[in-house]
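Backbone-to-sequence.
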């Protein structure tokens, strides 16, 4: 049992199920960074929700990349290409997230808790996009 737990938590692995489990933790932490910044920028600075979305995304993707290469995926030999692809997938996620957020806030009027409910829905959808694309194309 100890070896199983160590394999899940500590050892490098190419097993998709273990990577997904780890990515859920990394994604969760990155989401906390993203959503905290999103909330603070809107609440403290009165910024538009799409501005807050972009800044929160940038902080969240930075945390996600650093944790992903340290714990989730095996890093490649070409760090520049890896970072560019990671960011490209992230930008795709940002565009998808922004579109969904816009549709939920402006079209569906789903603006409970200062747009946080709409943000939470988009995060759950984009998580699947980010993991799948990063697993397939980046790492």
């Amino acid at each position: 049992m100890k070896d199983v737990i160590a394999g899940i938590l500590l050892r490098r692995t190419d097993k998709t199920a273990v990577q997904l489990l780890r990515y859920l933790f990394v994604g969760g932490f990155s989401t906390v960074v993203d959503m905290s910044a999103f909330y603070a920028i809107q609440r403290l600075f009165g910024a538009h929700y799409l501005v807050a979305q972009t800044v929160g995304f940038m902080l969240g993707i930075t945390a996600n990349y650093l944790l992903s290469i340290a714990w989730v995926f095996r890093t490649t030999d070409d760090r520049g290409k890896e970072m560019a692809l990671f960011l490209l997938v992230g930008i795709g996620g940002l565009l998808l997230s922004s579109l969904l957020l816009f549709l939920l806030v402006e079209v569906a009027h789903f603006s409970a808790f200062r747009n946080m409910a709409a943000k939470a829905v988009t995060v759950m959808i984009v998580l699947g996009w980010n993991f799948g694309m990063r697993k397939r194309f980046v790492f």
